[in-house]
Amino acid sequence: MSSTNKLAPIPHPPKKPVVGNMLSLDANAPVQDLARLAKELGPIFWLDMMGSPIVIVGGHDLVDELSDEKRFDKAVRGALRRVRAVGGDGLFTADTKEPNWAKAHNILLQPFGNRAMQSYHPSMVDIAEQLVKKWERLNTDEEIDVVHDMTALTLDTIGLCGFDYRFNSFYRSDYHPFVESLVRSLETIMMTRGLPLESLWMQKRRRDLAGDVAFMNSMVDEIIAERRKNAEATEAKKDMLGAMMTGVDRATGEQLDDVNIRYQINTFLIAGHETTSGLLSCAIYAMLKHPEVLKKAYEEVDRVFGPDVNAKPTYQQVTQLHYITQILKESLRLWPPAPAYGIAPVQDETIGGGKYKLRKGTFVTILVLALHRDPSVWGPNPDAFDPENFSKEAEAARPINAWKPFGNGQRACIGRGFAMHEAALALGMILQRFKMTDHKRYQMVLKETLTIKPDGFKIKVRPRHDHERGAYAGRTNVATSAAAPLAPVATGRARPSHNTPLLVLYGSNLGTAEELATRVADLAEVNGFATKLAPLDEFVGKLPTEGGVLIFCASYNGAAPDNATQFVNWLGTDLPKDAFAKVRYAVFGCGNSDWLATYQSIPRYIDDQLRAHGATNAYVRGEGDARDDLDGQFEDWFAKLRPLAVKEFGLDTGFERSADDAPLYQIEPVAPSAVNTVVALGGVVPMKVLGNRELQNGASDRSTRHIEIELPAGASYRVGDHLSVVPRNDPALVDAVARRFGFLPDDQIRLQVATGRRAQLPVGDVVSVGRLLTEFVELQQVATRKQIQIMAENTRCPMTKPKLLGYVGDDPAASERYRSDILAKRKSVFDLLEEHPACELPFHTYLEMLSLLAPRYYSISSSPQGETSRCSVTTAVVQGPAHSGRGIYRGVCSNYLSGRRAGDTVHAIVRETKAGFRLPDDPLVPLIMIGPGTGLAPFRGFLQERAARKAQGATLGPALLFFGCRHPDQDFLYAEELKGFAADGICELHTAFSRGDAPKTYVQHLITQQKDRVWDLIEQGAITYVCGDGGKMEPDVKASLMAIQRERSGGDDAAALTWIDDLGTRNRYVLDVWAGS
């Protein structure tokens, strides 16, 4: 078209000679290309399709105007015109002025009305039951091709409801021949574009099209003829075919002829199964991508349909699925199966306030895919899936003609009510019965034929358990049962009665040693020992001489855990050589080899001191390395200790767990109750959050938070101390775990403990499943081989069980599989449950597997000199792709803290540092502080303290601060404050940046660059502090310091190691480090 024609004001993309914009669109995805152009060119543009202009409109204001049926009528052109080869003058492909369109439209209004829907409902249930029965019979590892099965569902439904024909798609491995012919025909029609010489290379396609159309017509004609033979059946049948064969158009007094009835049936089969199958497929995809939506969908289905899957849903129940309907409508918004429709002006028109002129008959495409994402209607994030867009309030407030998945006016889809009822019923029956898994983490790829639908979308399902459905629907019964007396808890096998005393002691800050001690104490109690479990500090000066003593202890930066400090100090006093002559003991140490200098130091010290003072070591000290397979190392050690213990005490019973033992917990559903109060463990108290701000700027893709905490009355701290925080597990993870076991987080239960067993979880009190999983247990710890063994014992599936057992054998191959697939990828028990849905692990067994949720320690990043009633912590928010490959890993406490806001409460306690990480009392003592990233935290407190001392008149000794981060403009934490300290003479600031324009530099490189200054201060008696990553950073820093010492002294590596170890012994090289990733 020339630039002077009436379309000149309408934008258009560049075009090529002859073909114009014909090749501007991807032949496989033309509608998606149009949507892309709409974003680039705006709400209206035009294309030159080999000399024929097509106007594309996607903006709501213009679509609203173009929806006036007096001015614009449906245009059956392009691909839709070519569909007439199959649909003839059926409702979908007829021109509005064709006589058969009005005749058929008038006749078919009744069989698509509300009363007719009620008569079709049993047939819809019939087909939906075939779908769910097929899925129920699948093996757990079998995939479901969602589009295939939804196509089978919708085709069979329209076949049975429309003309009493059963395609029996669920009883065949392929599609029915009619469907195969239909799909081939539509593919050929969509491939036809009118390009030069196209007729030559599509000759075979066109012959096949003619053959396919002849076959489909013949089949439908036979169905019509068969019905004609039986006049009584024709009168009796209340389906669509019956209505077409007997209905009379009131306007003309005429009936439909058999040829037109054929075309209507073809039309119903095309439109009825292509569109609804796409809708259902997209809705399933959306729910799997939005767990919060899926949760609400389950809740509604279980509330409306109830837990009995054998009870057929009624028509009225389906009409009560309001949220399911919102999901379907929102799916139609984002992925309308019919993504565009054509109209044309009845006469010359001006639209857009006189801005755009359209000639009579101009082909205008309403791009529904763009209309449904118009920000002026759907807000600033129109691509987001949100069923609340179709709440009653939202729909009432929305302008008309903003949502048009069914077309416009009298030419809108006559079967929209049929499709929505069918889809709601199908989704409801699927959700009532199955848990669906997006095992491939599918991302939407749309395939375009006559409609759009997901391409290659596959899922897995497992049947939901009865109690899972009851979790939503059975609460009334649960409440009733809660008032009944509690049944006695099973006691399992008879408990041996030898009552040999066994004292199990632990020293633990992070919970690992305590968890192992609790596990052993419980096992000992089941096997007849008179067991006592306690912290080491409770037995200062009173180790028993009867029975045995088992000690589980960790080290914390070379110091004893908080609950073992007094015990360790007591061992270091002037004890008699035979102080423990009658004590029989064994020690297992927990540690992390990332910091070798202090690895196992406290367990080793306890073992040495007990033996040195006469105690009998029942078995060699065990070592568990958190950097490796700690639980496996414990199991190996304990397996060798058990027979020795049995022999030592002259017992005839094993030290084993029996299959006859009652489970630790019995779970009783109860009515919601406000009685339960969980008492914080470890002395923690509520503390108020005063502020929470981001320290990194917007250019960074990471997060570090500065969090201000108000201390309770009477609490105090010193620089270098830690704040021990009890975290909470991520709500999304808690929800997923609860649902895996058939609960909602709000469901209330009561735990009862087996007789003679020791429990750490709240027993006897009402507690919600969500609170239990949020506040009490670790959900992300790496699965141990023992736990995987238990999972295998609770798996019957012949495919899953060998996979789990493959990790737990004694052979090197099993050990390597465990290390590479579980340990290296940090897979938790829940990760494995998600990977292996056939595992039938009971919830009570899962709870027994889990450790108590341990507190996390944060260096306090402030000084009490500023304000004694508050402190701050600095935390890097740990978040990134999970090593397991399953979604995003979120650090428990850092993400919990990052979400706290001013006024929120956290449970915490100040813990005194045990690693000598203190400022010296003498302010003249030189300091060397090394802390990259959040390792800076304690040094910020040090510097604030030094500034306060200086303000009070003290003279300060020299201090070096080596700080490292990625980029000076992104994560230079407290940059202005640190620069201020340097300017005021509080410290000398040296910064290393590993990103940006300068060469990559780390703190160890700065130490080497400043070696003269560093050595000078060390010679003056400086204390060197290192805080941060103990896996890589601290060893590199130590290596740099040792290199400086070798250079200055002329000594060798051994001498340098002795030198730095001596600094550590004299608290002149002190560490506050954590495990490296």
Automatic annotation (TrEMBL):
One GO-annotated biological process of the protein: cysteine biosynthetic process
Coiled coil ranges: none
Molecular function per GO: aromatase activity; flavin adenine dinucleotide binding; FMN binding; heme binding; iron ion binding; NADPH-hemoprotein reductase activity; sulfite reductase (NADPH) activity
Flavodoxin-like domain mapped to chain residues: 502-642
Ranges where the FAD-binding FR-type domain occurs: 682-920
EC number: 1.14.14.1, 1.6.2.4
InterPro entries: Bifunctional_P450_P450_red, CysJ-like_FAD-binding, Cyt_P450, Cyt_P450_CS, Cyt_P450_sf, FAD-bd_FR_type, Flavdoxin-like, Flavodoxin/NO_synth
UniProt keyword list: Amino-acid biosynthesis, Cysteine biosynthesis, Electron transport, FAD, Flavoprotein, FMN, Heme, Iron, Metal-binding, Monooxygenase, NADP, Oxidoreductase, Transport
Manganese recorded as keyword: no
Keyword Cytoplasm: no
Segment forming the signal sequence: none
Cofactor list: heme; FAD; FMN
Catalysed reaction equations from the record: 2 oxidized [cytochrome P450] + NADPH = 2 reduced [cytochrome P450] + NADP(+) + H(+); hydrogen sulfide + 3 NADP(+) + 3 H2O = sulfite + 3 NADPH + 4 H(+); an organic molecule + reduced [NADPH--hemoprotein reductase] + O2 = an alcohol + oxidized [NADPH--hemoprotein reductase] + H2O + H(+)
Residues that bind heme: 413
EC class: oxidoreductase
Tree of life domain: Bacteria
Cellular compartments per GO CC: cytosol
Family the entry assigns: In the N-terminal section; belongs to the cytochrome P450 family.
UniProt cross-references to PANTHER family, sorted A to Z: NADPH--CYTOCHROME P450 REDUCTASE, NITRIC OXIDE SYNTHASE-RELATED
This protein's name: Bifunctional cytochrome P450/NADPH--P450 reductase
Organism classification: Bacteria, Pseudomonadati, Pseudomonadota, Alphaproteobacteria, Hyphomicrobiales
